[in-house]
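Researcher: Last one for today. Full complex below.
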Amino acid sequence: MAKYDITVNGKKHKVEADPDTPLLWVLRDNLGLYGTKYGCGIGECGACTIHYNGNAMRSCSMTVADVGEAAITTIEGLSETASHPLQQAWREHDVPQCGYCQAGQIMSAAALLASTPNPDDDEIDAAMYANICRCGTYNKIKAAIKSAASK
Amino acid sequence: MTTDLQHSRRQFLKITATVGGGMMLGFSWLKPYGEAEGADIITDFIELNGYLKIAPDATGKGSLITLLSPNPEVGQNVKTSMPMIVAEELCANWKDVRVEQAPLNTAVFKRQVAGGSQSIRQTWATLRNAGATAKHLLVEAAAQEWGVPAAECEASGSFVKHASSGRSASFGSLAAAAAKLTPPAPEAVKLKDPSEFTLIGTSQGNVDMEAILTGKPVFGLDQKVPGMLYSTALRPPAFGQKLKSFDDKAAKAVNGVVQVFRFANDNKIAVVATSTWAAIKGKRALQAVWEDDGTLESTASQYEAMRKKLDEAAEQPKRNDGDVKAAFATADKIIERVYESPYLPHNPMEPGNFFANVTADKVELSGPAQAPERFRGEVAKLLGRDESTVSIGLTRMGGGFGRRLRGDFVLEAAEISSIAKAPVQHVYTREDDMTAGIYRPASMYKFRAAIKGEQLVGYHLTGAGLNAGNVVRENFFPAGAIENCLMESHDLPSKVTTGPWRAPVTNFLASAEQSFFDEIAEAVGKDPVQFRIELFERAKANPVGKFEYDAERSIGVMKLAAEKSNWGKAPAGVHQGFSAYFCHNSYVAEVAEVKMEGRRPVVKRVVCAVDCGIVINPVAAINQCEGGVIDGIGHAMYGDFTLEKGKPQQENFDKFRLIRMGEQPAVEVHFVKSNTDPTGLGEPTLPPAGGAVANAFYRATKERVYVQPFVKVMKNLG
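Model: Here's the assembly. Have a good evening.
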């Protein structure tokens, strides 16, 4: 076990974990932040998407040792009162079905909107291709991203 | 016949707002009152029956109403729609309602199963009665307090009102008195006429929305209790192998691994650890020696065996109307086609998992379960306990698609907890989830049609599946519409475990059948929609034997889909394909539209017409329909799962292709306006999707596709 100081959602945390522990499991098991989901463990499904210095990254594919000084944001820290334009748009469109992938979808979409405030269809497709939704909510996700972008 | 096929303008606005343009619905967004200010002081809920509890709100003037949702929530949105049915008859204001997931409780609830698209259909009457009975008591309590006849009182918006005296009391203030009254005789409870519904038929947001949007722990994997350990299991890498020996030195050396043991009567090894990651690492470090237990199967040889079977007669046909032999012997033309489909893993996004805490006197279980009642019995038997000591809590499920109808993960969790003597969260990795078994069986069909003049006079369907049970649906269309109709099914034994997968059997049968009917229509020179309608008219006028569908409702959705898609009048460059199917008591017709982008056919839009009777929650119903269509298309186009010497060749999403953003068509959903009792929507829109796309591909490319996944044979599909 090694000790790490990591910054998650603006707060510093001391965690004890083996260096090869994926950030995903540190967030969930050590910090109790369950919004970041395990889906595949190999960076293919996007359920574990978080922000690493504002960039969408797969937390299953980076270790706790990789985090260093970076600012990590999870769905729990996306907004204080669940009022991020994407969270509002997700409500407005009633996007989720089972809901399991949606935190990852929102985190990918938030990184997209931060860099591309008015994405077109192709830009949304490219940015969201890495996030699987097994229930098939893709059209709602796309519509919600466009709604959020227009706000 | 209560179905009204005419869409009013208002209905159209209410339910057809779909993709692209965005929703234009005015929702009332439910804020769970558990999170509302002052809610924590509410402790004195009065239970009026097993479905609902009522208390005065913090001001004392209003009501807090807790409705229990009995059935497991797997993404089909029953946790919102089932309580809506209770709230409708209770005459509650939906804003006063908070929903709680009920645990397994067979003393109060019937059929707590998420499967077969039956949750709403089979509980419709019970849920309405639960709400109406409670309302009856609340009205009675108010009438007694005011000394007026109950018949003069009315309930609405969580209040009971007496019009002539102007008196009014909240459900919350009446609950205590109502609970003391003798429950009414069933015949005294009056249900609303559908025309009186004010909540049913309106779009209400998912009651778990806030939790989902903020990452609150609502899924099975999110459970944690003090002292909880995490476990994984190593299973044979190939179907047909067994465990010879294993060395756990390296596994036990992993930091955090506390225990490694072999399951009592199985070829599996459990690893118990203090964190999920340690449990995964420990499993990877296990060194196991496996040995073959007989022949190991491969996809190529399995397909060969199925193809051979298609040429054999079954011992006992599933259906045999008229004289099929004679019909084929005297036919002008015979069409014969064979269709193939692979195994499919369910791949719910939340992999298999369950919480178990087995102690000397009780067994506490909790997690994602589609069939908890069966699991309770299985666990009790495994551990030699009385069922009454086994409890199961239900978490929201990150998808299921049938996978969680099988309780392997529950049994493993229970056994591990009983040996580890600790509460455990048992976890399947994605690789475990995809390779541990229970698949949609691989299957094949041979269709033969005898044509005389312009008529389909004989129909012969032979199906073969691997460990698949009956792979034909002898009481579904075209049964009933064709005088000479023979349906046969072969079940080939296999070591590969199988189970129900969203719309069992019909998820491929419909796709193949509806592609075949497109070819028959072409052969007789008829429009594909008109050709099908004529057959259903035959089933109406001269029904052959018994069958399960209503021909009129079948025709209804076909006409609606044709109308809404402008069937036959598509603009240049848009190629339409038609498909229709009845299953799980609901009726669906779909028109897929394909455009060529260079040499690549792309599915751009699917128009989907549905008759599921009364629509409870339109926005959620649209979600289900759209999800079913996209799931059906995704798996028909891309889903492939193969075995080499018993070993699955796809273990994760790098090799197993699921449909992704940008590959889905726009989906437009239209419901037949109806006052018929509701039927389910979790499955029915999936089966026709593959056929609609295959038929549209044919219009676009002149290429018929007989093999799923389509991408395997259509080179330009991408």
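Confidence is low (pLDDT under 50) at residues 1-42 of chain B. Residues 250 and 718 of chain B are 44 Å apart (CA to CA).
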